[in-house]
Amino acid sequence: MSSSPKKQLARALSACAALLATLAGAPAAHADTWDDWNKPVAPFKIYGDSYYVGVQGLSAVLVTSPQGHILIDGAFPESAQHIADSVRALGFRVEDIKYILNSHAHVDHAGGIAELQRMSGATVLAGPSAAAALQRGKMGPDDPQYKDTTPYPPVTHVGTVHDGEVVALGANRLTARYTPGHTQGGVSWTWEACEQQQCAAIVYADSINAISSDDFKFSDNARYPNVVQDLQHSFAVLEGLRCDIMVAVHPGSGDLWEKMAKANGKPHALLGDPGACKQYVAEARKTLARRLDRERSAQ
Q: How many structural domains compose the chain?
């Protein structure tokens, strides 16, 4: 039986907190979080020409076409080889990846991009704030997790995408949806995948959780004064999307592995939950409200 959305989010937040403590050099409840998240998993078809090629705790998606492929996210630096192996296991060439898209520029989603770009020669695209962080190989001081993040290999030749901009390759059209708040440069990606004239709207949902380092306050922060408004904007964006299939940047947040286990090898395991994006947002709203209440109580 699937666990409740609240339990799913609690697991994801606990894992995030443990990872932040590890990266900051502080004692963590689960010191092996990084290794746990980076465990290889067998790649699989999501729907149509879209495939999961990420690792256990960090998503990456390959959208394929005869004209070349689009990869979303690169997970940890140590994940790059796992992702490349998954691409090859599906019968595709890493060298045929033409674009690498980023959700946000933390090490656990962007750390492997430089190596994957080296392997493929792909153009990397991200929102303007994330693009600057990718080229530095670290987040800026406006990031809610700035003091807890770790640097990663810088990425060269990074292009920027605007909100609503479409990245086209072959028959595929992926749209950038700005979803800031977790970081200023957060982007979710949406596209349509089809099989036998039946199409599904896929949402690759960026993090929208109010998670930060200890010094960052969401209720009043000069480094990122619009953080609450940005999160509320992101909530509205994701709630308003057609969402036949959702893949969250942390697959556990969308109950991906439980859905896969329940399907027991049957195709289209992630199809049939059109409320996934709304539920994802509902839990994030509760997290933000609890965080703001806690900060106000501490004043």
A: 1
In angstroms, rounded to a whole number, what is the distance separating the alpha carbons of residues 34 and 15? 9
> Tokens 């969250």 — which residue?
248
Beta bridge partners of 204: 189, 247
> CA torsion 99→105→111→112, rounded to 10°?
-10
pLDDT tens digits, 164-197: 999 999 999 999 999 999 999 999 999 999 998 8
d(CA 88, CA 162): 31
Above 80 in pLDDT, residue 23?
Answer: no
CATH number of the domain at 218, please: 3.60.15.10
Cα diameter, the chain: 58
For 23, 228, 231, 256, the CA distances from 289, given in Å and listed in that order, are: 26, 10, 11, 25
Distance, CA of 182 to CA of 264 (rounded, Å): 34
Residue range(s) defining the domain that contains residue 110: 5-33+41-298
Report pTM. 0.89
Per-residue pLDDT, 140? 87
The letter for the amino acid at 75 is A
| pLDDT for position 33 | 58
Tokens linked to 277: 């994006």
| Residue labelled with tokens 């059209």 | 173
